Amino acid sequence: MTIAQHxxxxxxLVPHLVNAVMTTFKAMTEHAVEVGDVTWTRYPISxxxxxxxxxxxxxxxxGVLTCGFKEETVFYVIEKMFGLSFDEINKTVLSAVGxxxxxxxxxxxxVLNEQLGYDFKMAMPMVVVGADHAVFDIxxxxxxxYLTIPFSLxxxxxxxxxxxxxxK
Length: 168
Known about the structure:
The chain is built from three helices and seven strands; from the N terminus they run H-E-E-E-E-H-H-E-E-E.
């Protein structure tokens, strides 16, 4: 599959990914997120302190969905959701980042499977912590790139990034 075909697949997923993020955060915080400009980068961006990652894998495709958060963003979201205030990373905060990632992945997986004919399964999210970290796919040489969508929740930043490689 060519780079253009990969990008076309990812572009088809943009409205579904945006909707998943908007629906998830509106339901969890009762606040709407604002969507920034969709970009394509050769390598993953590193603008977060915490990020949730879910591998997408099946016979005909593979990829990764990343949900990245600034520290203050995730604390703000958890406070809106549970009424609990946090000022340091702990197990609850890490679990919340993993759950946010799951909640965003589930509707995307549904579109990939039901509308585009794939057979992705639910996967366990992994959470990475560290200032301005980036997680690289060692099999991805930068030729396909990453689709990145920034969001803002009451002035606090988060982003969703998607890379899908398929043999279809």
